[in-house]
Amino acid sequence: MKTSQHLIEFYNNYDEDNRLAPKHGMVEFFTTMRYIQQHLKSGERVLEVGAGTGRYSHALARQGYIVDTVEWVEHNIEIFRKNTQENERIIVYQGDALDLSAFPDNQYDITLVLGPLYHLYTIDEKRQVIREAIRVTKLDGIIFAAYVISDGCLLDEGFQRSNINVMKYIQKGLLDSETFAAKSKPQDLFEFVRKEDVDELMSVFPTTHLHYVTCERSDFVGVTSHALDIFKNDKKS
Questions:
Q1: Which of 91, 98, 56, 49 minimizes the C-alpha distance to 71?
Q2: 51 near 71, Cβ under 8 Å?
Q3: What is the pLDDT of residues 163-208, one digit of tens each?
Q4: Which residues, other chains included, contact 64 with Cβ-Cβ below 8 Å and sequence gap of 6+?
Q5: How far is the C-alpha of 89 from the C-alpha of 176, rounded, in Å?
Q6: How far is CA 175 from the centre of its chain?
Q7: Contact 99/77 with Cβ under 8 angstroms?
Q8: Residue 125: pLDDT above 60?
């Protein structure tokens, strides 16, 4: 990942390890874990790409699964290793979501991409991350990809909490004044997308779509600020 200094500085000063501890974070964590556990069987192997400080990886390893993880930011890796317990069958590698060449094809039953797509700003880079995730996942294995959804964030942070000034975002070019579509650059740290962006991204891949969480109801698709796309790998090696 072409990680910018903006992103490194952000995670060096952000309490990523406790992001999922508040009530709203617990909803995200438990919902994601519930879907992972629907598809994960005893003895299967997991790869988490962009693992942060390892909340999901540690939870799965403590349930007995073999987990490999990839994380770019050294600060996050330090905390990850500090939180690792002796009985966890888990390895953390410093690496790039865009290049998983250190990992062989068809290795993992479940691949988690729960962070990297937040911080990529071109469709080519995003597709490269998905392509690599598919490559290392077994045929019929399951891939989880997380996104930050623009309309949910705008409704929550802009109109409900008033944490952002919508007019200033429009003036800065971060929001389209007619469609309210979000625009982001690396210095903005997070890339905001809509469901149609996710559909376009995935349209070139040989996968079967399984779930779009938290929007199993089509009329709620744009309401969430965080979404999880879950799909099955149909690509043969």
A1: 49
A2: yes
A3: 667 777 788 777 777 777 777 776 666 788 888 899 999 999 999 9
A4: 42, 89
A5: 47
A6: 23
A7: no
A8: yes
Give the number of domains in the chain. Answer: 1
Position 155 in a domain: no
pLDDT band for position 224 (cuts 50, 70, 90): low
Q: Does residue 163 fall inside a structural domain?
A: no
Residue 160 domain flag:
no
Coil, strand or helix at 229 = strand
Please tell me the distance from the alpha carbon of residue 2 to that of residue 119, in angstroms, as a whole number. Answer: 10
Q: pLDDT grade, residue 156 (50/70/90)?
A: low
Q: Would you put residue 162 in left (φ > 0), alpha (ψ -120 to 50) or beta?
A: left
Assigned domain for 42 exists: yes
By C-alpha distance, which of 144, 78, 84, 155 is closest to 117? 144
Question: What CATH number does the domain containing 133 carry?
Answer: 3.40.50.150
CA distance between the termini of the chain: 24
- Write down the H helix ranges in the chain: 5-13, 23-39, 55-61, 74-82, 123-136, 150-153, 166-171, 195-202
Which tokens in the block code for residue 236? Answer: 């043969």
In terms of residue numbers, what domain contains 27? 5-149+188-233
* Predicted pLDDT at 216: 53
The pair of three-digit structure tokens given for residue 196, joined into one six-digit string: 């149609």
Please state, in angstroms and rounded to a whole number, the distance separating the CA atoms of residues 54 and 71.
9
